[in-house]
Amino acid sequence: MTKNKNHHGFQFSRRAVLAAGSAAALFAFGAPAPSFAEDKSIKVGIMAGEEEDIWGVVTSEAAKNGLKIETITFNDYTQPNEALERGELDANAFQHQPYLDNQIKQHGYHIVRVGYTGVWPIGLYTKKYKSVAEIPEGAVIGVPNDPSNEGRALRVLQSEGLIKLNDGTGILATVADVSDNPKKIEIKELDAGIVGRSIDDLDAGIVNTDWALKSGLSPAERIAQEPIADNPYRNFIAVKDENKDAEWVKTLVSSYQNDTVKAEFDKVYKGTGLSAY
């Protein structure tokens, strides 16, 4: 893991300061972020795989404004927040708000959202059936076992009529909150990265879209999907609370939220993920 380092404030030239003051109103309405008089270097934690292609473009966009990004890749969801909290990262980009809220509750992290990236509607995948109606009694369905994604998965099963959750159940629902299971489905809790890879041994599985891609699952094998409208599971860039108003954070966000990065995002995810800003 990377070593901690001190982060100093930026030193602007007199011309840069005057220019920034006169253009402040323009930046508020989406004009390009200001360039730094001296390059600023940061480390951003992302998930290995498709995100590396997208962040390659983000890195190029940031460099135009004097922000140097080094991406640090991870292979599971448990490490990037811990690394950010310890100061081994300056930012990360991999999670949605329910996941972060649960992580903060468990670990006391001082991490906040600063800019949305994309949303990947979670889906019900199977290689054995053509529709939800074909799923038989006693079927084994895999779901992610981390609290936020398990609740998300169970809501998909509920929306398809396979189970019913107790009234008033929040977004962190677990199998203990299932009040009705007419087909006597066995819900198997697995690591989020394992569900898709275990699909051959399951009747069906709720798989996050990014893991579905990594597992070689295709949209044709998705027989149900969560609604996109008002989706609370938009992913975002996160930083330590103490840095949320830093100029480099504004530049980092604007380096992601632009048409150049969106074009790469659409190319990489082919419609399975959607820009969320």
TrEMBL record:
Keyword annotations from UniProtKB, A to Z: Lipoprotein, Membrane, Palmitate, Signal
Entries under CDD domains matching the protein: PBP2_lipoprotein_IlpA_like (cd13598)
GO cellular component terms, semicolon-separated: membrane
Compartment list: Membrane
Family to which this protein belongs: Belongs to the nlpA lipoprotein family.
Predominant location category: membrane
InterPro entries, per the entry: Lipoprotein_NlpA, TAT_signal
Protein name: Lipoprotein
NCBIfam families: MetQ/NlpA family lipoprotein (TIGR00363)
UniProt KW Membrane keyword: yes
PANTHER family given in the database record: D-METHIONINE-BINDING LIPOPROTEIN METQ, D-METHIONINE-BINDING LIPOPROTEIN METQ-RELATED
Recorded topology in the membrane: Lipid-anchor
High-level lineage: Bacteria, Pseudomonadati, Pseudomonadota, Alphaproteobacteria, Hyphomicrobiales
Organism: Rhizobium phaseoli
Signal peptide region: 1-37
